[in-house]
Amino acid sequence: MNVSFVDLRAQYLSIKEEIDAAIWQVLDSASFIGGEWVAKFERAFAQYIGRRFCVSCGNGTDAIEVALKAFGIGPGDEVIVPAYTWISTAEAVSNVGAVPVFVDVEEDYYCIDPQLIEGKITSKTKAIIPVHFYGQAANMPAIMQIAQKHQLIVIEDCAQAHGASIEGKKAGNWGHAACFSFYPGKNLGAYGDAGAILIDDERIAETIRRLCNHGQLVKHEHLVEGRNSRLDTIQAAVLSVKLKYLELWTEQRIANARLYTQLLQEQLGGSILPPKVRGNTRHVFHLYVVQCEQRDWIKQYLAKHSIQTAIHYPRALPFLECYAYMGHCPEDFPKSHAMQKRILSLPMYAELTGEQIYYVVNCMKDAILESKQC
Ligand SMILES: *Cc1c(COP(=O)(O)O)cnc(C)c1O
């Protein structure tokens, strides 16, 4: 049996007629940037998350960068980010001229540890970017409390958490602004790059809209300089169709995760650590990440048996070459450092079958048995 890590083709085939019709409509209209499809998707997505405004843009990294700029964050400022995340979170901070300050993650949930945030706040700190990592919401009640106390801006990185929630309130609805990516492999993915910023403040929403379109709201009226970061009409059409299925797909991901966890506990109890779900939250399993000894051995064994796995990510940010100038050592981020060698992302998507999940778990069992024999 073959189990790929993601299967974007299976998802496309399940909604092919609707997607093809939507794309043909765009082609027929010959309007490829902006227009009604984009406005329609922005309204629908703002409503889905529960925010007043959605400003679409070119990708999730731009979304974070533009949000930071709109809040006036730049040179001389510090922004707190988790040590374990995709590089975009920190990269966006550096790209506006500010300095990312890393905070270690929680041992159980892999999100920024609120207890460690205050220790990193200085007179230069302007914002916190919590990441709802792997599809699980960060501890937003605690983070918002700290932000209020120190008057910091909170920009949520929701790139991995479309539809996640904490205490019944969606990820993306807690901070001053929220940034989403619609990279094809995300839980809501376009057929190319795409992103969005969600916000309630009308004035800042307008600033963001200007920044994403060369500083203009009305053609040729450039109040400021901006950039070119817009959502293509074809991508908006794809996203509009796919948004209708997001809840269904999310429930399927959650059911798949339940089956994985149940089988892993029954058959491999102790040797594989399944993901833990924070109480009173909805984990949307962008990734299903387990921890194990002999991770590389298991990964190789699964590959030999036609099961694709991945590592998200091989190194925590403070240990990457690009941040070597900060001079961090493993003891600065013990949780992140310990994760690096142990994490493994198993195949996870809505279309994954129960049969495939049984096969993956069985192969992991064989891998562990075989590793003990040699
Ligand atoms: C994917 C991702 C982004 C950036 O998204 P792009 O659309 O690829 O630029 C940002 N943060 C996190 C945590 C991500 O996983």
List keywords for this structure.
single chain, 374 residues, alpha/beta, Aspartate Aminotransferase, domain 2, Aspartate Aminotransferase, domain 1, three-stranded antiparallel beta sheet, binds pyridoxal-5'-phosphate
What does this structure look like?
The longest helix has 23 residues. It is built from 12 helices and 13 strands. The radius of gyration is 21 Å and the shape is globular. Helix content is 39%, strand content 14%. The strands form 3 sheets. A 7-stranded mixed beta sheet has the order 1-9-8-5-4-2-3, with helices on both faces. Strands 7-6-11 form a 3-stranded antiparallel beta sheet, with no helix packed on it. It has a 3-stranded antiparallel beta sheet with strand order 10-12-13, covered by helices on one side. Bound molecules: pyridoxal-5'-phosphate (PLP). Pyridoxal-5'-phosphate binds next to helix 4 and helix 5.
Structural class estimated from helices and strands: alpha/beta
Total helices: the number is 12
Average predicted confidence as pLDDT = 97
Main beta sheet strand tally, sense and closure? 7 strands, mixed
List the secondary-structure elements in sequence, H or E. Answer: HHHEHEHEEHEEEEEHHHEEEHHEH
CATH fold node name of the largest domain: Aspartate Aminotransferase, domain 2
Q: List bound small molecules.
A: pyridoxal-5'-phosphate
Task: Please tally the β strands and state the result.
Answer: 13
- The CATH H-level superfamily of the largest domain is Type I PLP-dependent aspartate aminotransferase-like (Major domain)
Helix content: 25-40%
Apparent shape? globular
